[in-house]
């Protein structure tokens, strides 16, 4: 096989990026937009020794799992990878991914996994789940103002079909339309990356799903937005509008938000709830993007933690303290550790607005704070919750957790491969995998979140 060859391939698996994988002459081919069960014609784009990349040319026989994407730009937009796959099949694919990693990388015996696996929590309505959207603003090929998304691996803006993303809130559409109309009328220029000229770079929209409150933040390459009072008047008539701000970003950078936030109208934050915990969210705050599934994810973590009201809980990699505060009302005390100082400031503020006084938060690396406090102060835990970034827990964090001998470790993970690696270590050091539940936080993407309960085995 060589470049430009046309081949016929049956798709048998899917890669981590959602690309279909099929074999020709024993050689694996990765084909974007092909899904398990498709028979496709593909054109070879690049060949390595044992694998290659091919472009989908024709679907010769569609997979029974294939469906029409709701968004007509689903293939070009980097946001969704598997929108053309039936939702039940997406869930089965994600559950399988978690199981395969635990079996193969985690060396969990099949009978242990079968007893522990409790399935995957999907969404009843897997669209319009995102409470946050960030749209680059620019011009389309004809020179019209547009909001859209970047085509895969480029900074070329593809206009959003009808200014609407199927995963975002319905309010995003009238907000974007109002902003673009305003910019046209008052000759406010969109930012141009190449010349570093123009003003409006991005529009951030957030919605509190529990409160209906809306936030709009325009990221600008300047100190002020001209005629901002006119825009504020127009946007504030949209039901739920609570906060209109500008974020000043004059840097030549791919980082979207600038740190200087100026309020144009209303408050500089919106309020939302996860369960009965209240959060103040400002333009720069981290906040989970799928609130419906977040509540289910944290509910699972809470259930697995098995709290009676007396326990000392450590919540490592705690972000703005969402899990910590969710657990605090049912625990003796909770200690959160997080590397980002602003997130810890938000966590403390969120504890205060909820009258939660049994949560303490520490800024620092989990791999330094936890071992340091264990060695110096002999801190203990009944339950440890970890929700690390994709790379999983540092070895020293795992070692310290084992030394602390909590009864239960609740591991919340966004990467099944590093989860499996860490489960393997914990199983080899006195803990057993008792319960596993996957949660689909991001329908139509390849991502999957997992919650595991590891319980201490007596006598080990
Ligand atoms: C997957 S997020 C979890 C956030 C939080 N549990 C939540 O649900 O909102 C991982 C968090 O770990 C933080 N982080 C990354 N590396 C860290 C480290 N070495 N020590 C402590 N926190 C870290 C990140 O800033 C991020 O907030």
Automatic annotation (TrEMBL):
The protein's enzyme class: transferase
Listed transmembrane segments: none
Binding site for S-adenosyl-L-methionine: 288, 317, 338, 387
GO term, biological process aspect, one: methylation
Gene Ontology molecular-function annotations: methyltransferase activity
Entries under SUPFAM superfamilies matching the protein: Nucleic acid-binding proteins, S-adenosyl-L-methionine-dependent methyltransferases
UniProt superkingdom: Bacteria
Keywords for the protein's UniProt record, in alphabetical order: Methyltransferase, S-adenosyl-L-methionine, Transferase
Active site, per annotation: 414
Xref: PANTHER family: RNA M5U METHYLTRANSFERASE, TRNA (URACIL(54)-C(5))-METHYLTRANSFERASE
Family: Belongs to the class I-like SAM-binding methyltransferase superfamily. RNA M5U methyltransferase family.
Name the UniProt record assigns to this protein: 23S rRNA (Uracil(1939)-C(5))-methyltransferase RlmD
Taxonomic source organism: Faecalicatena fissicatena
């Amino acid at each position: 096989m060589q470049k430009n060859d046309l081949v016929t391939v049956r798709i048998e698996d899917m890669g981590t990026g959602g690309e279909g994988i099929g074999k020709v002459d024993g050689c694996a081919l990765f084909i974007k937009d092909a899904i398990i069960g498709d028979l496709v014609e593909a054109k070879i784009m690049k060949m390595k020794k044992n694998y290659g990349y091919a472009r989908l040319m024709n679907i010769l026989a569609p997979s029974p799992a294939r469906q029409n994407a709701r968004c007509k730009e689903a293939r070009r937009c980097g946001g969704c990878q598997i929108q053309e796959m039936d939702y039940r099949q997406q869930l089965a694919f994600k559950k399988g991914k978690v199981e395969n990693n635990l079996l193969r990388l985690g060396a969990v015996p099949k009978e242990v996994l079968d007893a522990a696996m409790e399935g995957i929590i999907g969404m009843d309505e897997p669209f319009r789940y995102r409470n946050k959207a960030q749209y680059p603003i620019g011009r389309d090929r004809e020179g019209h103002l547009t909001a859209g998304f970047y085509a895969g691996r480029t900074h070329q803006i593809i206009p959003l079909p009808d200014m609407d993303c199927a995963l975002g809130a319905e309010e995003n559409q009238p907000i974007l339309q109002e902003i673009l109309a305003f910019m046209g009328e008052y000759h406010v220029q969109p930012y141009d990356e190449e010349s570093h000229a123009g003003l409006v770079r991005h529009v951030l929209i957030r919605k509190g799903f529990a409160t209906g409150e809306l936030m709009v933040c325009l990221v600008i390459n300047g100190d002020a937005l001209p005629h901002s009072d006119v825009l504020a008047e127009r946007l504030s008539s949209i039901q739920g509008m609570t906060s209109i701000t500008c974020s000043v970003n004059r840097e030549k950078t791919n980082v979207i938000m600038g740190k200087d936030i100026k309020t144009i109208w209303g408050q500089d934050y919106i309020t939302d709830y996860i369960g009965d915990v209240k959060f103040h969210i400002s333009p720069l705050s981290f906040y989970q993007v799928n609130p419906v599934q977040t509540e289910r994810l944290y509910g699972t973590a809470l259930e697995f933690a098995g709290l009676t009201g007396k326990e000392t809980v450590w919540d490592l990699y705690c972000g703005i303290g969402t899990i910590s505060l969710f657990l605090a009302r049912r625990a003796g005390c909770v200690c959160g550790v997080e590397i980002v100082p602003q997130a810890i400031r938000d966590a403390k503020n969120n504890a205060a607005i909820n009258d939660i006084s049994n949560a303490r938060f520490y800024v620092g690396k989990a791999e330094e704070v936890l071992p340091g406090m264990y060695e110096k102060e002999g801190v203990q835990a009944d339950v440890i919750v970890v929700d690390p970034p994709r790379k999983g827990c540092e070895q020293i964090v795992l070692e310290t957790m084992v030394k602390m001998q909590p009864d239960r470790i609740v591991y919340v993970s966004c990467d099944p491969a590093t989860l499996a690696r860490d489960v393997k270590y914990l199983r080899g050091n006195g803990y057993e995998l008792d319960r596993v539940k996957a949660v689909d936080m991001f329908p139509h993407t390849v991502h999957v979140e997992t919650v595991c309960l590891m319980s201490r085995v007596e006598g080990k």
